[in-house]
DNA sequence: AATGTTACCGCAAACGTTTGCGGTAATAAT
DNA sequence: ATTATTACCGCAAACGTTTGCGGTAACATT
């Protein structure tokens, strides 16, 4: 277990001062090109790498971003993180990923750790139980920008990047109308989630406006299993009127699909099916499920550029909405 | 953007020395309980939190583990990470997650970053193209233990924690035999992957020994789509003999299931289906798919205890295999 | 009264950087 | 020949901790 090379070691070997080595390594104009050459060569040779702890202690900049998500087993977050990482790499930042397990306590711990580590910025999808956003604002005071994404707080003046819930719900609804369904079941998530309210409200609005005579029923499920049960009990025995189901999320869709398979029904013939998704789950079935896309990747790109703006100082709180688009499967 | 509280600030306010504050905060016996009380109260009040960079600079210990995986959109890795995090939290370690995107270049960068940050240890599932393991051994020299899991190198003398590929393949094969299938299709992954070889070899061995007259066919697919195509073309038109399909992985299973849905076949009646999986994908279908479980969670627990052993110094390279168990769905 | 113990506490160096400032020698301008 | 300019380079402080060592006062022991 040998020691890591330091500026000091290089300085001693070359009979120059530590400051000279430090400056040479970052191409400071005060140092002659001759000296620079010597120093760089030796540094290369002994594989010198600056100690990030010392740098941070001195400069208070960590050059790393934190991404905090409730869960990792989620294609949406995964593609969000990919997008962030792509951009961060280009700017010389690294990104560390935290997982809150949807537990506000753990979330707080993570936040604390981010503060201690003086991360350069935080991207966070808050837990569904997060109510107190004071700690987040506090981070901003400490000079650490916070970008909320996907799951964002109600609070107005903070940076939020969200999927276009209303838009996604409306294009799904429009597709249902376009295909001429008269009997529609909408399955939504937990009533208390803001995402549910947004999607539900818009979905109903578009439906009602599009066709006042439609037979529309909406229900709420808090889990995949509940969605399965609801679907099972709410699919009419005789599908005389053209019947369609809208699933607000992947979780709901998974449950509903299980029920559909159980009843041995085949979209799009027996019934129409459409959801809102990032695309992973819909692609597992045949025919693939048609869905309004919520792209984690897009969101990531948007979030990153927002972050850069914050870091450069020229920022005011802003909410950005990513519009979604219809991805055609064969389920409706 | 106000400054963070430091030992110095506390010391000044209380007219004691920095060393006294430092010691008081860690309950050093040299400090009177009276002084300790004062200091702790003030520290609490102004929310003092030690600067991890300063600590690391001084002590060279980071109290954090790195977990490096090729991908995050993977239930298996997700549960592995959960297990590590659970244990790490108890021991006062935090864990940071890195994603190599299955790119050896990025993997190298991550390794480098881990070295710079002097992480306390690394858990890594290497990329499928990683050939040079010298950098890993070098980390060990630097005093950073490396535990390989899931995707591990061939090299003998390192710490490896793997799923029991042979065992999983054999219990799946036994289940097929037990249910009396005479016509079996085994779909495996890329021929070059060691995991494929292990599972294939054992699967065939058990099959042949169990029933020499069985009609067994094995194929290889490098993607989900390929698995779908293969399944489509290899399912007999007339399923007179009892027919079963074995899918080596989730990826394969996803493709195969699409083909099965496409052909409107229903397990377990039309054909038997069994896989090796962590359990996420199998639960999406009805009936749920029966599978030999490879538990990321178990692996994580094993890996962590191995890590602790390494850190305490009492370690020699060792390979640990986690045996799998059959999880009953209704597909066979 | 001199010495030994004990209980507290502070000094100062060290970890590896960065950076403002000042210094020296060589060269250019007066 | 003096002064200004330039090109290089080093000193030293600072970032926030930890920790060995030494010091002082109070008390207990001879």
From TrEMBL, chains A, B:
InterPro entries: HTH_LacI (IPR000843), Lambda_DNA-bd_dom_sf (IPR010982), Peripla_BP/Lac1_sug-bd_dom (IPR001761), Peripla_BP_I (IPR028082). GO terms for molecular function: DNA binding. Keywords: DNA-binding, Transcription, Transcription regulation. SMART domains: HTH_LACI. It comes from the Bacteria. Signal peptide: none annotated. The keyword Zinc does not apply. This is LacI family DNA-binding transcriptional regulator.
């Amino acid at each position: 277990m040998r020691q890591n090379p330091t500026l000091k070691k290089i300085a001693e070997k070359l009979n120059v001062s530590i400051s000279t080595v430090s400056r040479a390594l970052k191409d400071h104009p005060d140092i002659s090109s001759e000296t620079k050459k010597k120093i760089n060569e030796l540094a290369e040779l002994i594989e010198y790498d600056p100690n990030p702890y010392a740098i941070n202690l001195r400069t208070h900049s960590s050059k790393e971003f934190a991404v905090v998500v409730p869960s990792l087993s989620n294609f949406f977050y995964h593609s969000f993180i990919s997008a962030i990482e792509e951009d961060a790499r280009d700017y010389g930042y690294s990104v560390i990923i935290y997982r809150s397990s949807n537990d506000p306590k753990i979330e707080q711990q993570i936040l604390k750790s981010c503060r201690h580590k003086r991360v350069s910025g935080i991207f966070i999808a808050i837990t569904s139980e997060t109510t107190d956003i004071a700690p987040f604002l506090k981070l901003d005071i400490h000079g650490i920008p916070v970008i909320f994404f996907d799951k964002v707080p109600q609070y107005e003046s903070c940076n939020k990047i969200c999927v276009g819930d209303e838009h996604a719900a409306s294009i799904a609804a429009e597709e249902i109308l376009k295909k001429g369904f008269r009997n529609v079941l909408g399955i939504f998530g937990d009533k208390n989630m803001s995402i549910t309210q947004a999607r539900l409200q818009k979905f109903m609005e578009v439906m009602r406006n599009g066709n006042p005579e439609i037979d529309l029923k909406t229900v709420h499920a808090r889990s995949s299993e509940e969605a399965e049960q609801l679907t099972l009990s709410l699919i009419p025995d005789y599908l005389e009127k053209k019947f369609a189901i809208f699933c607000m999320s992947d979780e709901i869709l998974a449950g509903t699909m299980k029920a559909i398979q159980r009843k041995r029904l085949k979209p799009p013939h027996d019934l129409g099916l459409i959801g809102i998704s990032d695309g992973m789950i819909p692609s597992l079935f045949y025919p693939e499920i048609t869905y309004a896309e919520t792209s984690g990747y897009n969101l990531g790109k948007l979030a990153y550029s927002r972050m850069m703006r914050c870091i450069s100082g020229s920022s005011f709180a802003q909410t950005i909405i990513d519009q979604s688009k219809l991805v055609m499967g064969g389920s409706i």
